[in-house]
Amino acid sequence: EGLSLPEPKASRNAIERLMSHSADKRIVGALYRDRRRVNKAQCEKAFSSEAENKRLLELFKSPTGSDEPEECGWVGFGLVRIHRSVFLEMKEASKPGGKLPEIAPPKGRETDAYGFFGRTSEQRGEDVVFCRRAGKIGIKTYVDTGCLLGHIGKAIY
After folding, report:
1. d(C-alpha 114, C-alpha 106), whole Å
2. Tens digits of per-residue pLDDT, 13-30?
3. How far is Cα 66 from Cα 61, in angstroms, rounded to an integer?
4. What's the pLDDT band for 1 if we cut at 50, 70, 90?
5. Distance in angstroms (rounded) separating the CA atoms of residues 35 and 91
6. What are the contacts of 97-100 at 24+ separation with CB within 8 A?
7. At what angle do helices 126-136 and 84-93 cross, to 10 degrees?
8. Which residues are 57's β-sheet partners?
9. Is the pTM of this model over 0.90?
10. How many of the other CB atoms lie within 10 Å of CB of 88?
11. What is the number of H-type helices and E-type strands within the chain?
12. Cβ 46 vs Cβ 40: under 8 Å
C-alpha cells in the first residue's frame, strides 16, 4: 500500500514550499503519518486529540481544509525548516542561569557540540525534544498541512 496524494498536493516542491513561509515561522515541518501502521499524524496535535489526528489524516485523502501552517507543540522532522536563529537563541539559553542549561557542553569540554537534539528519559524522539526546548524559550513550531509526505519505515504511506 503506497501513498497516493492528490495531484495539487503531491506536485509541490516541498523544499521551496517550506522555505517560502514567513520569517516569524522559524520551525515549520511537513505533515506525514507514522511508519508502523498506528495511524498517527506526526505532530503534537495528533497525539493530543483523536479528533485532530482524524482531521490531519483526512488531508492525505482529500485536499480540503487549511493550506497554511498551523501552530503545534512539536512536528516530526521528516522534512523541516529550522531557521539559524533558533540554534543561536537555544545556545544563548544554555548559558548559566538560562532556560536550557541541559544542552550546554559539559564543564571542561566547552568545545563539544551542543545537545540541541539530545533525548531525555521522558521524551524519546529528538524532534519532540528539540521543539519542546525551542518552545521553552518562546519559539513556536508549525506543521504545514499543505505539504504532505510519505514515511519510509516498515511500510510506506
Report:
1. 9
2. 788 888 889 999 999 999
3. 14
4. very low
5. 32
6. 99/136, 99/137, 100/133, 100/136, 100/137
7. 70
8. none
9. no
10. 10
11. 6, 4
12. yes
